[in-house]
Amino acid sequence: MIGCHVSITGGIFNAPKRAADLGCETFQCFTRSPQGGPAPKLTPEVIEEFKSEMKKYGLDNFYIHTPYYINFASINPAIRHSSIKVVREELERGSLLGAKYIMTHLGSHSGQSAKEGINKVTKAVGKILDGYKGSTELLLEISAGAGDVIGDTFEEMGDIISGLVSPSFLKEKFGGICFDTCHAFASGYNFTTSKKAKDMLEEFDKKIGLKYLKLSHVNDSKFGLGENKDRHEHIGKGKIGDEGMSSLLKTKEFKKIDWILETKDDGRESDIKILKKIRG
Q1: With 90 as the cut, is the pLDDT of residue 23 above it?
Q2: Residue 110 is part of a domain; what is its CATH number?
Q3: 3-state secondary structure of 178
């Protein structure tokens, strides 16, 4: 299914209509301000209205993005613990609303080695999932690799996943990976031809495991391959281009997962139509 990120201005129950008006078959949203502050309460009335709107517009699944300030690798314990608390809350909120997945950025290892940062992220994710009984699953999002950001390589993501306690723990409580096309391209992963896409997915499988590929943020990139800059562009208007995007999205692996746009409002409806055309 194809969708995009939509606003929850006026209440989260407004999100399904906004998605449907754009031609979405699914969507992504925040449940709280991405910049900070207390989360709006999910009262029984709000939950009931949201689910009613989902049903009204024929939407079965939706996804939640965690706030931007999450940093599981911070050397400041208060920031780390707050990030754990917020993401666990988002999982619980997602379960109340019926979200399939929430996805989160991992943070930065600034002030320490990458290895130390990865270790902190792994422990943080383990704490988030410890004792969690909800239905919404957690996805870790691939990053664009700017500065000391964690999660820009398949190796780092694989290390985090392999460090999460045990296979049984992963199977029961961990969702997998959200693959952002712009981020991966910015981090140097080239998938702009069928051969390159195949090779990249083979590397993903070797270092992470394709069974963990669960969702994709589909964005073109304003900057070139390996430039480590996270700047989304409308589909076909960036450095990945129509052919590059099609090469990845037409693989059997990407046909199995949903695609979520995170491009700017103006032109987003056109982006959705382009993706539907690529899908065929």
Answers
A1: yes
A2: 3.20.20.150
A3: strand
